[in-house]
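Progress report, Aim 2. The chain analyzed during this reporting quarter is listed below.
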Amino acid sequence: MPVLEKIVISDFRNIAFQELFFSPNVNCISGNNGEGKTNLLDAIYYLSMTKSAFSVSDKYNFRYGTEEFSIGGTFRMPNGLETMFSANVKASGEKKFRAGEKVYSRFSEHIGVIPVVLVSPSDISLVSESGEERRRFVNSVLSQLDREYLYSLQQYNRLLAQRNVMLKSQNRDGSLLEVLDARMERLARPVYEARKRFVEDISPVVSQYYNVLSSGKESVGIAYKSDLSDGSLEDIFRRNADRDALFRYTTAGIQRDDFIFTMNGHPIRRSGSQGQQKSFLVSLKFAQYEIMKSRYGFAPTLLLDDVFDKLDMSRVSNLFSMVAGNEFGQIFITDSNKVRMSGIVDAITSDRVYFDASDGTFSRITGTRGEE
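Predicted structure tokens for the chain:
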């Protein structure tokens, strides 16, 4: 499995410059809110996914007053060799991602090379926001697991943009639209099938983890909602032709897919308490971890951002033990409560290191329980 041995960060978020060496096992980062703990995890995520987990645009990632940021990480790869992956982004819009000295021609070539799972308080948007957030989550998982899925999705979205331009035109070419629809059908079907299989695979694993957090008080699940459940995309486009012409954009297709999170058969968004929703989301991300570990044959990097907050400590400890107790990979954990974090981590493994975050600067802490 890829192991991040060293990271060098310059002018990313509130981190001016930092060089850190990590444990191949558990790395714990403590500090008050706003000191940069999450920014460090996001820098690690960036090296895996070529983008931030929290910002759609790179313009929010520059340290105040700067016009360029860079992130570089030295990884020990599964073949035993060290490889340097790096990102360099300028305010002008220029962005380069490298593997060693080689510059990727397409960022998608890197997706899946360093698999990663992030558990964060921002995951609540998966419940509270629109289906776009849930599609983004599923896409991020499947894109790491299946390069063909990522290709099909990217090409479908490119053709979808072309189709919407045609629908806005006063002089639409019906025959050209039919050709476009046929090409989109060939791309949409594998995306639909992959999403359907993913939901079937992950749902029982989510239930397993949720039972650990809730003691089996509720049953949870995931329902996949897609227009393609009703037939081919070409047939769907034909049935919606008048509606598309009226609204002047494509009103049906996999870009409208949604994933309904349920508790006792009802949408958890409406029927679940805040605690139940958070327990579900933590279970969802840990299930993602298990699915990815099974598919890759090794554990992905696991980033846990404030996961201990607002959850029962004994249950979180059990959850963490399930992940860390069986061939776990490299784990990064943040918590504002150093004593709480060390109490849980030290009970599970002695192979861990601690860092303290202060105003974008990170220092390694000595001591057996994360204490000075």
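The longest strand covers residues 3-12. The radius of gyration is 22 Å. These observations will guide the mutagenesis work planned for the next reporting period.
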